[in-house]
Amino acid sequence: MKLQDRVAIVTGAAQGIGKAVADKLAAEGAKVVAVDVNGEGAERTAEGVDGTAVQADISKPEDVQRMVDETVSRHGKVDVLANVAAIVPFTAWDDVTFDDWRRIMSVNLDGLFLTMKAVEKPMRAAGYGRIVNVTSNVILAGTPNLAHYVASKGGVWAFTRAAARELGKYGITVNSVAPGLTATEGVMASPHAEAFEFVQMLQCIPRRGEATDIAPSVAFLASEEAGWVTGQLLVADAGMTHN
Ligand SMILES: NC(=O)c1ccc[n+]([C@@H]2O[C@H](COP(=O)([O-])OP(=O)(O)OC[C@H]3O[C@@H](n4cnc5c(N)ncnc54)[C@H](O)[C@@H]3O)[C@@H](O)[C@H]2O)c1
Q1: How many whole angstroms separate alpha carbon 29 and alpha carbon 167?
Q2: Residues with C-beta less than 6 Å from any ligand 1 atom
Q3: Residues 29, 7: Cα–Cα separation, whole Å
Q4: Closest residue (by CA) to atom 30 of ligand 1?
Q5: What pLDDT score does 242 carry?
Q6: Ligand 1 centroid vs 169 CA: distance in angstroms?
Q7: Which stretches of the chain score pLDDT less than 50?
Q8: pLDDT confidence of residue 142
Q9: Chain CA centroid to CA 52, Å
Q10: Residue 191: predicted pLDDT
């Protein structure tokens, strides 16, 4: 098992890709702290993996600090941070307001800054850390109806590269995983669900992406054996953007 005795915080763990990541990291031996603004969902995921749950909004500094404090007081350390939580909108460009823009940035980018700053202290003290930030293949495709989201996810990727440069000397790696369109609760409840047929025509592997297709890429980058890999983008999209 790749993550035996490792302690892993997974944000956005109540459903979708975050839940699949929590399940996979636990299957690889990690003690999982399932974090979500949806506290009941986080509890359900935690119960399923014999882990613990923290209800937290990653855009709030006090919530994020509590998330790390509770993890360290319960488990003694933080080895892995998997940043999966995000808001995935569907808004025509003409309708995107500055408030929409700020809301997306506050979760998708501020949340990353806050969580990474907060785990950095225990990771640096231990001389070990694995941070995996989920971005999206829309940063390569420039997908419509998502301009503010695409901008935030481009920021996730650029920030990942910069943080890898800053934190490598402390034994901390920072990488990104870019999923393609994936059937999650969030996507299936939105107009994105109508895009599967079209997207499958662009993929090398012509079937619908599931959350369990994404989790193994996160697990690899979260593992000790990925220690020589940092500042990288691992695109998990069935080859849609491979050219
Ligand atoms: N599903 C896709 O097609 C797809 C494609 C590319 C990238 N992604 C990325 O994968 C990740 C997960 O996507 P998904 O489809 O599973 O999403 P989802 O909407 O199904 O789940 C997102 C989870 O994040 C939680 N969350 C939202 N805001 C939060 C906050 N402020 N604090 C804490 N938790 C919060 C939600 O409660 C929810 O449980 C996101 O980063 C998304 O951008 C998804």
Answers
A1: 25
A2: 11-12, 14-18, 36-38, 41, 57-59, 84-88, 107, 111, 134, 136, 179, 181-182, 184-187
A3: 9
A4: 57
A5: 86
A6: 30
A7: none
A8: 85
A9: 18
A10: 96
